[in-house]
UniProtKB/TrEMBL annotation:
<protein>
    <submittedName>
        <fullName>Glycosyl transferase family 2</fullName>
    </submittedName>
</protein>
<dbReference type="Pfam" id="PF00535">
    <property type="entry name" value="Glycos_transf_2"/>
</dbReference>
<dbReference type="InterPro" id="IPR029044">
    <property type="entry name" value="Nucleotide-diphossugar_trans"/>
</dbReference>
<feature type="domain" description="Glycosyltransferase 2-like">
    <location>
        <begin position="128"/>
        <end position="270"/>
    </location>
</feature>
<dbReference type="InterPro" id="IPR001173">
    <property type="entry name" value="Glyco_trans_2-like"/>
</dbReference>
<keyword id="KW-0808">Transferase</keyword>
<dbReference type="GO" id="GO:0006487">
    <property type="term" value="P:protein N-linked glycosylation"/>
</dbReference>
<dbReference type="GO" id="GO:0016740">
    <property type="term" value="F:transferase activity"/>
</dbReference>
């Protein structure tokens, strides 16, 4: 082994050996075998397909070196057992890495954080996710909102990126968004232009749920903020939610607009009040509004929540996120925000409200035993 490199032990029964050898090439990587001397290793990667195997693997390592720092690698798509740590022996650091094909950079960061917890890691990264669907008629609002959000990223949150996620639009929105993104990128003075602003299309309409799920799956940021595209929210409220979650105490911060929304019809106010009453038992303490289109979640909390989310939740995906957050014991702050309702909403109040009720029942049934 190269004496100038740190030694990392990998204990695994998965097929990711090539990942460790290829991307952890700044370290001496060895796979554990029974009877080997592990005293010279700085940390161990534990990568198994089940909770029992992961605990057994961790305890095998800790039985020989009780303070060995561990990085437990867990498949992004799998639900992480909340009691994973309870039966682990020893007293060293244990970190979790939620593995996906998009998480290699974070894997390297997590290895460094496990090996060198005394050193500061990279500055927290943020993602501003803007779902869009058939926005052609309201594109002026989308352009105005991008201008404001882009300025916010350039001037204040320089470690943030903006992502448009197209929810299967059929009116030419995809091309309009792509052209707008390319134009903005071409005007940018940033060296890494593609990292600041990008767009992605789902190729199908999911009533918003798919945009949230895809964003959580594909974006490796420490804070992920979801916001409607129609310029109905202010950058000051966006900043407020980003800062609340980035500070670290709250896992989520969600905006509520029901008391401040401008231009909202009386019928819509009434339906919103009814929804609040019906969803109250599913929401975290202190939260009464699940449907406002502005919310921020920490990257770690998003990775815990992700395996419980379902595309068929549609417009109730916000409720599913909050109900799972409640069941997982996450800390959620509700923040009053200013909002101006725009014309051209794709919501059919009666039809979509009925579908929301059906989705709410599904969400309760499939997540009540978490």
């Amino acid at each position: 082994m190269n004496p100038l490199k740190k030694n990392i032990l990998v204990f695994s029964n998965t097929d990711r050996s090539r990942v460790y050898f290829r991307y952890l090439n700044l370290y001496n990587v060895e796979f554990y075998s029974e009877g080997m001397d592990i005293s010279g290793f700085g940390m161990a990667v534990i990568d198994f397909g089940s909770k029992g195997e992961a605990i057994a693997g961790a305890n095998t390592i800790r039985s020989q070196k009780s303070n060995m720092p561990l990085l437990v690698v867990w498949d992004f798509e799998k639900k992480l057992p909340l009691n994973l740590f309870k039966n682990m022996e020893g007293y060293g650091v244990v970190n979790i890495h939620h593995y996906s094909e998009n998480s290699i950079e974070r894997l390297i960061d997590d290895v460094e954080a496990t090996l060198h917890p005394q050193y500061p890691q990279r500055k927290n990264e943020m993602a501003i996710v803007i779902p869009v669907y058939n926005e052609k008629a309201r594109m002026i609002h989308v352009k105005n909102f991008l201008e404001k959000t882009y300025s916010l990223v350039q001037e204040e949150f320089i470690n943030a990126c903006i992502y448009f996620v197209n929810d299967g639009s059929s009116d030419g929105t995809e091309k309009l968004i792509d052209d707008m993104v390319e134009e903005k990128i071409s005007q940018s003075a940033y060296v890494f232009k593609k990292l600041i602003l990008s767009s992605k299309s789902l190729g199908r309409n999911t009533k918003k749920a798919g945009t949230y799920i895809e964003a959580i799956k594909s974006i490796n940021s420490d804070v992920i903020l979801f916001v409607d595209a129609d310029d109905s929210f202010s950058t000051s409220d966006i900043s407020r939610l980003l800062n609340i979650v980035n500070e670290g105490y709250y896992d989520m911060a969600i905006g509520t607009k029901d008391e401040t929304a401008k231009g909202r019809p009386l019928l819509r106010r009434g339906i919103s009040s009814a929804k609040r009453a019906l969803t109250a038992p599913l929401l975290p303490r202190g939260v009464y509004d699940s449907q406002t289109g502005l919310k921020a979640v920490s990257g770690n909390a998003a990775r815990y929540i992700y395996p419980y989310l379902n595309e068929d939740s549609g417009l109730a995906i916000d409720l599913e996120i909050l109900y799972v957050a409640k069941k997982l014991g996450l800390r959620v702050a509700q923040v009053p925000v200013d909002c101006e309702d725009r014309d051209g909403s794709h919501i059919n109040l009666v039809r979509d409200s009925m579908q929301f009720l059906k989705s709410m029942l599904k969400i309760y049934v499939r997540n009540r035993r978490i």
